[in-house]
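Lecture 7 notes. Example A: sequence first, then its structure tokens.
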Amino acid sequence: MTTKAVITGIGAITPLGLTASESWEKLRLGHSGVSHITSFDASDLDVQIAAEVKGFLPDNYMDLKASRRMSRFAQFCVAAAKEAAQDAKLELTTEEKPRAASAIATGAGGILNTFEEMGNYVTKGPSRVSPFFIPLMAPNMGACQVAMTLGLRGPALASTAACASGLYSFIEAQQLISSGMCDVVLAGGGEAALHPVAIAALSNMRALSRNNNDPEGASRPFDQERDGFVFGEGAVVFVIESEERALRRNTKIYAELLGGGLSCDANHITAPLDDGSGAAQAIESALQIGGVEATDISYISAHGTGTALNDVSETKAIKLALGEHANKVAVSATKSMVGHLLGGAGALGVFSCVKAIEEGIIPPTINLHSPAEDCDLDYVPLKARDREVNYAITNGFGFGGQNGCVLLGKYH
């Protein structure tokens, strides 16, 4: 008998707030977390805007020694994980810890430390390179640091699949629980990769919005005036438990994690398949694995980057996967408010779905004033919408053609 996986705790560090409740409140109200870059001097760059996490102080979440041995992305993940554990009132006995896992994804890991230590090597010499550089930059350290912080002695998994990374964590979590291998998984994703070199590279690729004069209006998924995505950072982490354990603890259950689907376009290093068939395959797989009909879906938290190719391809994918029902589904893009969290984007999409299921409120796609010609679904423009949501999916598509879709449902 397959064990159900349920979500019992949420934690978030985002450009909109340093808690899940603050982040959700601003998402619901359609606030933007995009502004001019403050973490470094961007005056020489063509792109001078980003969705930064503001006011984050590691010392509020961990001791100084621990924080110095973590990259910024791992600090975000630990902070979000601690909030999620507190929200779930999670306490693990010695006997339970070997059956508790972490699955924390990222796209770039500790890339900021790579840039920093390369600078130290070039300007100060080999002796000035940090002895902690390797564990600082390693992508698995978000998962490992969460495990060390909370005493999780089961698997520590760290999938890296570009902008689809965050969704892999939830598929892994559901599989760990449904197979009976684990009873608890801390699952999510995080990213902190804002650096002049990264901004310059993506700008030269023409992937980023250059709307420096209007930061809050720069991220425009599905709009005819869109000109690229906005770089973001942050982390979202959930406590996912077996149904049996959650019921035994008599804890709040936000939603059921039904699984997900994965695919690869096998087409191009950056461009999606024109017809959306690769992404549609992931959506169809998620529905099949979760045992849910396309007509049951009420809400889709879109990948919705605001790039010319992605928005059209995703629209086509939704139509391919859902058929005529695609026109009845509410679709919204949280990246319009928080930018693109890369490896954390999928976890933010799950967050949007879980809160929509819990509260019956679908967050908006802000800055959507004139939908593009080939973007003709219901993207919940400008203002949140009240709607009962029994089943929701969230999409994530990464460079290299990696596609992910996670399915969530109201717990019954």
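Example B, a different protein, same format:
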Amino acid sequence: MSERITTDDVAKVAKLARLRLRPDELTRFTEQLDAVLDHAEDLQTLDLDDLEPLAHPAELSNVLRADRVGALLDRDEVLASAPQAENGRYRVPPVLGEAP
């Protein structure tokens, strides 16, 4: 393991984040963060000069169907299945202490 990040560094960040880590967790997280830094270092070596910036790595297309009016349900038939209906609408229990 390199000295790029130490257990003390991880302990300091954990304290700032108000995390309590056991000694074994400190060791494990130090190793994991060092591996992340190794990977980031590998990425720095890539030659990206000939690549155009991308907003998204894959081609995107709209997968939603067209919004078209279709057959509608009969209001009276739908309201007939409701526990309570009033004036052509569903009646629901009061919310937030509102009077009925």
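Note on Example B: The mean pLDDT is 89. The CA atoms of residues 7 and 26 lie 6 Å apart.
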